[in-house]
Each structure stands twice: as structure tokens, then as C-alpha cells.
Amino acid sequence: MLDGILLEKAGIPSISIVTDAFVETGQVMASNWGVPEYRFLSTPHPIANLSDAELEERVNGVLDDVVKLLKDGQTSPDQPNNCSPAVKSIKEPA
Predict the structure, then answer these.
(1) How many domains does one find in the chain?
(2) Nearest CA-CA partner of 18 in 10, 84, 85, 38
(3) Is residue 58 assigned to a domain?
(4) What's the predicted TM-score (pTM) here?
(5) What is the pLDDT, as a whole number, of residue 93?
(6) How far is the C-alpha of 7 from the C-alpha of 9, rounded, in Å?
(7) Could you tell me where the beta strands, DSSP code E, fall in the chain?
């Protein structure tokens, strides 16, 4: 999650994906880093013991959303670097 936030701050489009068990944690992390509007994706938990076929099914379930978020950016296509001003001005939490 933090990697995605910091990459976006650097102007590098990225996607953060968490399992649904960590959605609330992701929201708190984004808020703590000053970007409560940071958009990320989730997939059902768990994934650690899935077979290759099951994992591919999960990937296929979020693939369209990955492409859309990469195309749209964190805010809208008219934002510079497709990155919101809030993401660009991230300060490390105290």
C-alpha cells in the first residue's frame, strides 16, 4: 500500500491491491499518509495457499479495474501525472 502511495507521489502510476481482510488497514494507512482519497483495489482473502489456477481467477477478477485505475489515475485524467495534488504533497506521518 505504502509503495503505491509513494510511487504515485513520484509521478509513477501504480496500483495497490490488498485482500479484503486488509481494506480497513489500507484506508487507515492512506489516511495516515495524508491521502484518505487514495484509491486501491481488493480481492477476496486469503490468497497465500491458492493454486495457480485459483490465483489466475482472482487476477482476472480485478484486471479490468487495474487497467481502469491505471488509465484514470488517482483522480482524473486531467490531473498532472494522473496523480492528485494530495498524493504529490505526502508528508511522512509523525
Answers:
(1) 1
(2) 38
(3) yes
(4) 0.77
(5) 60
(6) 5
(7) 17-19, 41-43
